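Usage

Read records sequentially. Each one opens with the input sequence:
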Amino acid sequence: MSEYLLTGRSDDTSTVVMRENENHRRNSLNSHSFRDILLVEYRDEVFARLAGDLAAMGMSVERASDAAEASRRFAYCPPDLMIANAEMPDESGWLLAG
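and closes with the structure output:
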């Protein structure tokens, strides 16, 4: 089971951990007004499933397949929320979220 880190650009959003297949993920994300999401995931099938769920909630999802790409995208145009796989092959999602 994968863990994902959620980090927002607003001051009231702290880094939280979401575990794959948790039923409350949809409810907790719906309670905020996130529209632009940067999803950092290196596995195609996992990205497709998560991006589909987020898009179904009315969110616009961009993909970064590794930490370096996520850092570049975040610096260029910060999203409302970044969701990063905590255990990526190239760099820890914890370092990216920090």
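Summary fields computed downstream for this record:
- Confidence is low (pLDDT under 50) at residues 10-17, 21-27.
- The helical segments are 25-30, 44-56, 67-76, 93-97.
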